[in-house]
Task: inverse folding
């Protein structure tokens, strides 16, 4: 272990003591060793990155800090005092706040109540002081520079705003340690910038922050130190200055990775598979016309909220539309019917795989077979043997890592879950595959595999429509790139013409600072 | 950059306020909607049969509502936390018999003691439900379906073929539903006060808000460190205790108590709660709405009786209202979500 800890030069006396120090934490779930040797040291006023592939044990470490899991062994020291966290309340009392990748808000409660639940300000008689609660919430949002209305209910908030609520909650708790588990996964560039502003505000107030992200450029942009984990173990801790992204990737995967970004399929596109003609949904998208030909990967880029996912959902028949036509291989597609879309040979890998792509409680095998049940049944009964054969075949082809095919899919890591979703659709031999954010929250190694899979599919003649917020992915994988802005198609680029800057300015509609994410 | 942001912020504030207004309007509409249906029902029935609005009939409806409204209060607390208590009908039956039987066993026993006994019996049942749901992590639908039968079974074992009849009950007890202040039955006032307290509690106390949070997102509630098990346990205990008290009231109202008392009440109470705008999957709704739902259902029964329509229609109309309420909820939630999303989008 080449742990090279360093004290930033401008640390004050008080900050010399680590704000939080976790040493040699281990946690097993039955036979699965989720965390074998996890260590991390956080200092006040510092943003500390935690990186590693999916399944490296980051989430388990986070849940230990959150008090959700109790470690089997290891020590946790907060502000010089050794503590045992028996539950989330204990973690909160110890001054640790955790912001999860998927914010956990109460949709029926107001924003202010979400922030203060369980510790609302009181007036005499232990009654909740609503006005004080609203005012304090409003003050916190002002401090963060985000004008959210504390009195609205949380239902319908964008993921970025949900995270802001979580951060505001941590702030109002006066948490000394804030753990952010992939906070940027679902944010647009402007929102990431806003988050970074907030993080800088937090560190200037001497908070210690643990920042988990798969986007290394963000790690370098906002963090000062980094801890790398692999296979449940601590690999290294170091100052970020002097390190390169390649150093980190090497430490994460334990080997050199093939050069990114991947190559486009480059296959000669064939006949149009999908033709969308002046598709309009009032208030969401307007006059969208596009074609995806067989063997072609077309990327739909644009800011989150520009209507990309909504167009894809309309094509697959999940959402209705008000005007326009969709044809598949020259046949007009029935409106608002996923069944018709599937019958026409469309596969759809949704953005939110946990909610929409998978049935989390069902087995790996059942999830893979889910879209192909028609082929697996005889006399109305599903043939278990055929289901198993199909699942193990696809698991092998996509290199899905699993314990048993009968394990619930929830037990797989994010990357492997995404492969299960892909396998589910590939089993139907789709003519058109729509993938929405195919590599969100997936580690570098699996990401490359997913990219290769998409280009292989295109070479086999499948038409692929990909929605992605990651510019390297869009630039690398797509043959053609369509950029959406505010519900309209703003620009089109070929693989050769596209640059990050050109895409960004098309997506923003103005010259704003560009960055690695849309 | 700053210049760009400033007008955006302005817009944010505006649409934010709009969405709040929307959310508030919807929740108010939900309660005033029931009130509107109630008024229409009363108006139409009165036009046909004027005696529907007689003092005596109004008193009858109010007294008839009290047991349901009380049960609806306890049920609301349980349903808000994304649970359900199906045992309340059986608890009413057991409590009604055991507590009123005390008058025969111990002549001269003070009435408040009998109410306390009923409360205790209900509380015991509620605690049993609560332990199994909160500590045993068994879905409440299953637990309370089981206790529905178990408690009824115990009731039948104890009561057998006998019954408590009015002759063994003191007049002061039987008069409880008849006493009035200014034409309004005492007991209706008392129940209204209890419901007001319940509504205030759920709105204003942390533990009350916890119930909404738990029902809205149980996982988030756990992560937020809320005492989920304890709150759910308490909700069942309170629901049981209230059902126990309601059982004693039932005894005072009907005077004759055998082993079938309160049969089928659980579904009527759940109906009242849902018609009253409490989301069946928890997280939203109010005690006031649930009580109005109970009042509406009692009014409908009475109206059908006054109009001379077969009581068969009673249940059919309840079922229809239930469907209507659920359809309305779905529509409102969908519209509300869409509107809030749209607001969120226009802010970006």
Result:
């Amino acid at each position: 272990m080449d742990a090279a800890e360093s004290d930033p030069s401008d640390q004050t006396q008080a900050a010399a003591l680590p704000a939080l120090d976790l040493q040699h934490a281990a946690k097993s779930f039955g036979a699965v060793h989720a965390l074998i040797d996890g260590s991390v040291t956080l200092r006040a006023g510092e943003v500390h990155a935690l990186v590693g592939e999916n399944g490296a044990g980051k989430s388990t470490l986070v849940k230990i800090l959150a008090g959700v899991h109790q470690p089997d062994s290891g020590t946790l020291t907060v502000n010089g005092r050794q503590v045992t966290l028996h539950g989330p309340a204990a973690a909160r009392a110890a001054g640790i706040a955790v912001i999860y990748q998927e914010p956990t808000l109460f949709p029926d409660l107001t924003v202010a109540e979400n922030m203060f639940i369980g510790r609302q300000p009181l007036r005499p008689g232990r009654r909740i002081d609503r006005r004080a609660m609203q005012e304090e919430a409003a003050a916190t949002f002002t401090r963060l520079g985000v004008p959210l209305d504390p009195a609205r209910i949380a239902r319908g908030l964008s993921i970025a705003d949900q995270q802001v609520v979580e951060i505001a909650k941590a702030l109002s708790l006066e948490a000394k340690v804030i753990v952010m588990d992939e906070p940027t996964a679902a944010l647009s560039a402007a929102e990431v910038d806003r988050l970074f502003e907030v993080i800088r505000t937090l560190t200037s107030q001497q908070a210690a922050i643990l920042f988990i992200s798969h986007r290394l450029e963000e790690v370098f942009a906002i963090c000062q130190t980094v801890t790398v984990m692999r296979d449940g173990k601590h690999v290294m801790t170091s100052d970020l200055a002097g390190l390169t992204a390649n150093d980190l990737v090497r430490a994460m995967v334990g080997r050199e990775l093939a050069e990114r970004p991947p190559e486009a399929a480059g296959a000669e596109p064939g006949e149009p598979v999908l033709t969308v003609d002046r598709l309009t949904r009032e208030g969401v998208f307007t006059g969208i016309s596009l074609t995806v030909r067989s063997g072609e990967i077309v990327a739909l880029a644009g800011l989150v909220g520009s209507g990309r996912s909504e167009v894809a959902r309309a094509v697959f028949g999940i959402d209705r539309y008000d005007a326009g036509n969709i044809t598949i291989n020259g046949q007009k597609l029935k409106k608002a019917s996923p069944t018709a879309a599937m019958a026409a040979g469309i596969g759809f890998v949704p953005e939110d795989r946990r909610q929409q792509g998978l049935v989390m409680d069902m087995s790996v095998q059942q999830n893979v077979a889910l879209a192909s049940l028609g082929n697996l049944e005889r006399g109305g009964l599903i043939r278990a043997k055929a289901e198993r054969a199909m699942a193990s075949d696809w698991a092998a082809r996509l290199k899905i890592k699993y314990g048993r095919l009968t394990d619930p899919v929830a037990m797989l890591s994010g990357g492997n879950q995404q492969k299960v979703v892909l396998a589910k659709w590939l089993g139907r031999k789709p003519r058109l595959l729509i993938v929405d954010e195919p590599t969100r929250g997936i580690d570098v190694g699996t990401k490359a595999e997913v990219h290769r899979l998409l280009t292989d599919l295109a070479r086999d003649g499948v038409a692929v429509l990909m929605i992605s917020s990651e510019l390297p992915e869009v630039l690398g994988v797509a043959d053609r790139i369509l950029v959406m802005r505010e519900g309209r198609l703003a620009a089109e680029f070929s693989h050769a013409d596209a640059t990050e800057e050109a895409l960004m300015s098309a997506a923003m509609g103005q010259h704003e600072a560009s960055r690695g994410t849309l | 950059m700053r210049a760009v942001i400033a007008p955006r912020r302005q817009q944010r504030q505006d649409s934010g306020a709009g969405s709040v207004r929307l959310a508030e309007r919807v929740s108010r509409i939900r309660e005033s909607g029931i009130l509107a249906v109630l008024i229409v029902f009363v108006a139409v029935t009165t036009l046909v049969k004027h005696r529907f609005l007689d003092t005596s009939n109004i008193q009858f409806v109010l007294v008839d509502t009290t047991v349901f409204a009380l049960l609806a209060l306890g049920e609301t607390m349980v349903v808000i936390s994304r649970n359900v208590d199906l045992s309340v009908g059986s608890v009413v039956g057991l409590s009604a018999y055991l507590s009123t039987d005390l008058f025969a066993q111990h002549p001269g026993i003070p009435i408040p003691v009998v109410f306390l006994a009923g409360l205790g019996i209900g509380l015991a049942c509620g605690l049993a439900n609560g332990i199994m749901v909160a500590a045993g992590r068994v879905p409440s639908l299953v637990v309370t379906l089981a206790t529905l039968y178990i408690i009824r079974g115990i009731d039948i074992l104890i009561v057998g073929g006998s019954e408590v009849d009015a002759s063994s009950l003191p007049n002061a007890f039987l008069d409880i539903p008849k006493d009035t202040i200014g034409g309004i039955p005492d007991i209706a006032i008392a129940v209204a006060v209890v419901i007001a307290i319940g509504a205030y509690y759920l709105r204003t106390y942390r533990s009350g808000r916890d119930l909404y949070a738990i029902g809205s997102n149980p996982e988030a509630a756990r992560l937020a460190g809320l005492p989920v098990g304890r709150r759910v346990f308490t909700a069942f205990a309170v629901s049981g205790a209230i059902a126990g008290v309601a059982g004693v009231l039932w005894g005072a109202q009907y005077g004759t108590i055998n082993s079938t008392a309160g049969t089928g009440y659980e579904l009527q109470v759940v109906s009242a709660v849902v018609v009253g705008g409490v989301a069946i999957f928890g997280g939203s709704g109010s005690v006031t709405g649930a009580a109005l739902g109970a009042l509406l259902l009692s009014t409908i029964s009475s109206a059908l009786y006054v109009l001379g329509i077969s009581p068969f229609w009673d249940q059919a109309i309840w079922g229809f209202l239930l469907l209507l309420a659920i359809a309305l909820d779905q529509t409102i939630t969908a519209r509300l979500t869409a509107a809030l999303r749209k607001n969120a989008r226009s802010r970006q």
Observations:
- The domain at 30-343 of chain B is CATH 1.10.3470 (ABC transporter involved in vitamin B12 uptake, BtuC).
- Confidence is low (pLDDT under 50) at residues 1-17 of chain B.
- Strands of chain B lie at 180-181, 184-185.
